[in-house]
Task: structure prediction
Amino acid sequence: MPETRSTFEPSQLLDGCEPSLADEYNKMMDITEQTKDRYGTLWRDSNALMANLVRTKAELDRVTALRQQELAEHRGAIEPYRRVIRAKDRQLQKFRRKKQKLRHRIRHLETDLRVANEELEKVAFLICEICYAKIKDTYTTCGHTYCQGCLSTYRQFLACDMTILATQCHFGPCPKCRTLLKPDDIRKLYLSTSQDVVVVDSDSDSPSEDDNNDHSDKDSEDSEYDDN
Result:
């Protein structure tokens, strides 16, 4: 059976109606057509905007993925440096702990040094005025004290200069005040921590090893006496 199409037109209902009603209907139809055209334009614009948003989102996703990839590459590139920095930081912490220990050690050493200096000051008057290392055991009439070893070395040095030792009757000038000394101006002495001084007149022309041995024997006897 063939399809039949309706030939009905709404305007046919207005046939025979009043002209004012037909005019009102025509106005409504015009407004409807205008609204349809307006919404059609909005629909096309919205479709274009949606397509633009889709393209923008795709571009944004592409850029985001690219940036994430670059960020991952940068993180991978800086990871070795991070490991180095962490290792250096651990090493720095280790050095700081070691530095703190050294500070404590230095404070203890300073305390020990101060105590040692105080003890050294108690016996400073016993130290030779030339080498500042050995105990002085020789006294000059000009008021200075030295150890036997320094005076022997000084005597050998003067023996090389004949202008100083014009005759053998002179020992030479005092190492400190340059007073000309004779052999009998040099005497043996014995000191103790109580600053007691015992001066022994020298019977020889100059200090000798025998005097040193006598001194050592004297010290040994004193030590044995103290022990008893």
